[in-house]
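Whether sequence alone determines local backbone shape is best considered at the level of individual chains. We regard such an encoding as a compact summary of how the chain folds. The sequence in question and its structure tokens are set out directly beneath this paragraph.
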Amino acid sequence: MMIRMLTLLFLVGGSRTAVAQCSDADKKALEAFDRAWGNASVAGERAFLQNAYADDYMGLSAAGTTTKAQTIDNTMRDAERNRANPQPVAIPPDNFIITCTPNTATITHRNTFISRADGKEETFYNRSIHFLEKRGGRWQAVSSTSNALNDQGALLYMERDWNEAWKRRDVAWFEKNYAANASDVNSRTGELRTRAQEIEAMKADKSVLESLELSDLNVRVDGNAAVVTGVNHVKGRDAQGKPFERRTRFTDTFIKRDGRWLVWATQGTNIPQ
């Protein structure tokens, strides 16, 4: 069920946003509010939190529900404890999906936490869902919930991150998330590339990627190994400025090392138009 829910969230999020009754500026303002809210929670800024939560706020978790007062008190205790022992380290949230009307909004995003044990790092993820209403001309949270991401969920996010990194030619992402002994079979040429060769080929590529959309995703995990299959629909312009469009069915193999999933092997086959 988790896989289906996350896949649905990824694949329909764009279309839902497209019909939402608010502008890009509204969404940016909501994201800025969410980030400020998160920073205030980490810092234990009670005054900000008093304004951020609606009086009838209800927090939802596996342990039950919490009111506005209970939520703020819990947040203050967590902030004090984290100042004394800042573990795990929280990475700024990402993968925002925001839908809204003039007076209501839903914000979802991924949260990443890194802990250290015996000199090794381990990464954990969860997903937050916030429901807001505009009251008195300002946004306030009326309800929130979150859930931990299992390996399947983390890998689905990793596929999305991979597309974004490829679009931006983000070399640092590939250096961090490709295993040292990773291999990459090019879907157009059939060439087998090492991690270093794939990074150099990406640097040399003069094409412009305009959109990348994932579909038909399926995740299988067995211990510290996983396989993700799916279809990647890519649109862009080649080095000469000529538009192109292709669909590639891919098989990505991942390995978990030191608590973190890494790309181990990837292979793609172009689907005839």
User: Anything to note?
Assistant: The first helix runs from residue 2 to 19.
